[in-house]
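TL;DR need structure tokens for one chain.
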Amino acid sequence: MQYSYPCRIEPDGDGWVASFPDVPEALTGDGDYGETVELAADALVTALSRCYVERRRELPPPGARTPGEILIRVPALVAGKLALYSTMRRNRITRVELARRLAVSVTTARRIVDPQHRSHIEQVERALRAVGRVLVVDDRAPGREHGPAVDLPGTGLPSE
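>> reply
TL;DR here they are.
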């Protein structure tokens, strides 16, 4: 699964507000458009971590992007952790069981699954293999996967 979520960035008084239709808990804003885009990625990771992973809720699937929305992607390490969490949840694999499979402490297993904890990508890949999955990394030119790139107003950044 790809962890790229549509984001709406709209004017709000003297600044901008970023919201995610699929992750309503992720909400942020700033006076600068470009800073709002950057803060949106942090808000997304925080919401997915605290409101879904910590509470052991199913992750919301990303919906289709609609006109005026941009895609916000979580970092590769976080995507790996979210994939691990989703697989564990789907297959009813506890953190205790993951720790047993990896021959590590339960604390270490919890940290490997936690999207907000810094881990080594190799740990996440090993954990994914232990639950029958592999992490696949892909690269592409910005904006090419869903049509032509569109510049974000005032930033010079592509919309995807």
